[in-house]
């Protein structure tokens, strides 16, 4: 087992395996067809593999990198049986992601000790599971022994505030809110001020579901950041972009737009349990050089996991 295995319980592995089942079945069936009738890895298998990964939403650039790594491995080892392909893919993709050196700043749901509170601003378009992810994060931080507070700075939709309130009650944490249509920056200011006064460990700020091509809405994220810095000069410590894994290549485009517009430094990829497009996690992790911190694997409050590259790839390719 790999480096993270001591942090990776049997229950977490079962959740990961179950959450990736549809992607795993899709990739396995395609790979099986790609190597049908072949005893060794040849150019035809490599061409077929390229198609497998592109159609599994790994992305063209990352797919080409994987194929190049497999070609080098085959050239070095001279003869590799096609039955060994899954193990080979698992090794090479894991190594590729590790070489990118994009590990999340916090490997679990603990928080840094050099500042308090730790402020996380969560961004993303409507419908990606942003508020749900915040609720699950809050529950996990509480379970890890932290005092948590949420800020309902998505003031444009009553449903967003109500949903955050529900998750706050589930997680057992307070939610700071104002009336519908209030200034989101004012909500953020009130939240971090209250967090400082109440010795809170973690503050999570929800923001409106931004249309990623609307500059004015992106400018508002800057305003929220500036207002929080009046209370905590280095806030937010994390800007977490939530992406819907089931949208495949559209998730790549959203990531490009948000990364260009604001200082995203962590990613969460949700809804992987309901899609065969889980390969998008590999592509996004490789292409953006921004850590994928969390993956969403189900509806339950415990179905948000810290992304462990090695365990993810092992689960995807059925390696123990």
Can you walk me through this structure?
There is one protein chain. By secondary structure, the protein is of the alpha/beta class. Helices cover 49% and strands 12% of the residues. It is built from 12 helices and 8 strands. It has helices at 10-19, 21-35, 43-55, 60-77, 85-99, 130-143, 158-171, 184-197, 215-228, 249-261, 280-288, 309-317; strands at residues 118-123, 148-153, 175-176, 202-207, 238-244, 266-270, 292-296, 304-306. Strands 3-2-4-1-5-6-7-8 form an 8-stranded mixed beta sheet, sandwiched between helices. A hairpin with a 7-residue loop joins strand 7 and strand 8. Helix 2 packs antiparallel against helix 3 (43-55), helix 5 (85-99) runs antiparallel to helix 12 and helix 6 (130-143) runs parallel beside helix 7 (158-171). 47% of the residues are buried. The model is unreliable at 1-5 (pLDDT under 50).
């Amino acid at each position: 087992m790999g480096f993270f295995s001591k942090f990776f319980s049997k229950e977490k592995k079962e959740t990961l395996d179950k959450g990736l089942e549809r992607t795993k079945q899709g990739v396995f069936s395609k790979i099986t067809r790609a190597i049908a009738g072949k005893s060794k890895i040849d150019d035809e298998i490599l061409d077929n593999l390229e198609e497998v990964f592109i159609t599994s939403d790994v992305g063209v650039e990352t797919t080409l990198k994987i194929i190049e790594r497999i070609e080098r491995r085959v050239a070095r080892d001279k003869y590799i049986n096609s039955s060994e392909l899954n193990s080979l893919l698992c090794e090479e993709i894991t190594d590729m992601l590790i070489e990118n050196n994009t590990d999340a700043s916090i490997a679990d749901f603990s928080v840094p000790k050099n500042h308090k509170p730790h402020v996380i601003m969560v961004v993303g378009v409507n419908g990606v599971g942003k508020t749900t992810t915040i609720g699950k994060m809050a529950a996990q931080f509480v379970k890890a022994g932290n005092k948590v507070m949420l800020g309902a700075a998505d003031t444009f939709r009553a449903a967003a505030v109500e949903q955050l309130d529900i998750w706050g009650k589930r997680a057992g944490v307070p939610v700071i809110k104002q009336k519908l249509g209030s200034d989101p920056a004012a909500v953020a200011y009130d939240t971090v001020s209250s967090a400082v006064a109440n010795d809170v460990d973690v503050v999570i700020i929800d923001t409106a579901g931004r249309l990623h091509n609307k500059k004015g809405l992106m400018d508002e994220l800057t305003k929220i950041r500036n207002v929080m810095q009046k209370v905590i000069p280095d806030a937010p410590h994390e800007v977490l972009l939530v992406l819907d894994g089931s949208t495949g290549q559209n998730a790549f485009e959203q990531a490009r737009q948000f990364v260009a517009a604001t200082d995203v430094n962590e990613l969460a990829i949700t809804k992987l349990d309901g899609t065969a497009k889980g390969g998008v996690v590999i592509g996004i992790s490789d292409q953006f050089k921004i850590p994928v911190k969390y993956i969403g694997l189900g509806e339950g409050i415990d179905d948000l996991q810290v992304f462990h590259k090695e365990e993810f790839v092992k689960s995807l390719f059925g390696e123990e």
